[in-house]
Model the fold of this input.
Amino acid sequence: MVFIDKNSKIIVQGITGHQGSFHSAEMVRFGANVVAGITPGKGGTAVNGIPVFDTVAECMHLKPDASMISVPAPFVKDAFFEAMAGGIKLIYILTEHVPKHDEMEMYANAKRNGITLIGPNGPGLTVPFESKMGIMPNHIFKKGDVAVVSRSGTLTYEIVKALTDAGMGQSTVLGLGGDAVVGLSFLDMLKALKDDKDTNSVVLVGEIGGTAEEDAAEYIKQGFKKKVVAYIAGRSAPPGKRMGHAGAIISRGKGTADSKIKALNAAGVKVAQYPQDIPALLKEGN
Amino acid sequence: MNLFEFQGKELFRKFGIPVPDGFVISNDGELDGRQMQWPVAIKSQVLVGGRGKAGGIKFADNLDSAKAIAKELFAARLKGLKVNNLLVEGKLSIEKELYVSIAIDTSRKQPIIMVSQKGGVDIESVSDSDIFMQQIDPFVGFSPYMATAASKALGLNADLSKQFSKMLSGLYRLFKQYDAELVEINPLVITNDGKLVAADSKVSMDQDSLFRHPDIKGSYDDLTELENEARLKGYSFVELDGTIGVVANGAGLTMATLDTLLLHGLKPRNFLDLGGTDNSDIVKDAFPLILKANPKSIFVNIFGGVTKCDTVAQGIVAAKNEFKISIPLVVRLSGVHEEEGRKILEQNGIHAFPNMTDGVKKVAELSK
Done:
């Protein structure tokens, strides 16, 4: 497992909202240690038994390790800066439609302050039956030694469920987010998984757009020891069209599924034709 | 969201970037009594590239000829798009055409300046070796040394370099203040009398930051009619050229669905992502869009999490009855409440599968 375990203390910024209240309850049900929620003006109340504070500063005596941000897009940057000012080093942003210039600014600040930034616009981070920050459905997981790293949401659940159905449990499942500018990348996650004793193999779920998969392939080629398999969505996407995710666009002939599959194959990574083929690929010898 | 050339040039003026003198008209009569420096360029305002080649940019030496051209450009469709406005401006005497833009480098997660001596052509077709790229650290912002390096790559003399530095600084301020995804000048013209002028403008706004820019009037001319309707209804929708209508949830899963169809020799008619919803009306209301695209059959692919499969099934049944869907309809449901969902569908005579590939095979069989 990486980044969080059952002892990690999590706060939820925006806990009184529809998403915040529903998903914080699901997180607690999964085993997450959610110690506080933050909503300005709602301090002193509680959501599903979790105490609510007006500001992050007011809850810092609880020594939180991580924050999940689920506030409306125009307020995300402010919530991020508040968590950063509090000294929180793991920040996950669930919200979609965050302005790209805000994303660049948050990323630059995260980098300079040693903050691990996950998202925006991803399903979050799940360590089966230890802890969870985000919105992945609880029932699809099984504890095991496969790490899954993905740029999408539903497609991740699809692949996790296929693994679980095949009897292959997961060590950590991370959604990077579908936006064009996100914090953690495949490469960062591979570096984090390199020495993770709970992880023996890795599934990368990529899609068209950007060069994150190619960068990961280059790193794997240089001697990543664990088995890696992949799926790439968007083989059929025409250039110049944004396929739902802001990041899923082919421009200047770059970011095609072909280029990613080629790069991964060259690094010895087998790429599945269909999402449900992932478990079989993992079972195959190299 | 892209701005029209004239909107982009208004922003250029605001940030001190030289553009030709000009004005916008919405009918040929508006040319009467205007001060013009002949000859003029008359440019159709549409949101597609390659306007010149498609006949959307013409030149005139006098008022009669300008009015005739305007009339003709307003009457014709350009690459299928209606021309609502023409930009009329003094024709430039061109010595050389260059390229400059500032965009977001999504790999390094920061702005990037790109310049090229190969201006005036679609930058998509210019190879990397002909483009000079300069990263901008957002903590530093634009600094003149960046323009020095870019000027050198453009082969500019001392005087032009000075003009270019001022221009690039303005372009960066515009990029940042307006939350742009892309600000592009192509071509950036060196005139015969040694001036740098932005002959064209491309400004792509970040849809998600429009709330901060109430002065920007959006236009969605570059979307198809159906894409625009979907946008207003809140669906993520892209029109494609195949025959199989597609409804799925999640962008990644929707793409995987299109890929799986293609691997089975079936061409998708569209990309439609329902997003995360547990409301059967949102499912139901997606169908009129699909039906308007006239597909041969429809494939629905749902993985239930927050979205419950029985809710989805209710939406599909309601759509089938309300919109009298008579073309083949195949549904794949997996995840939360999948058995209940498939039961609802089967009771209503709709093919339901737990596995995507089995669903796609059924679509193939029914589409023969």
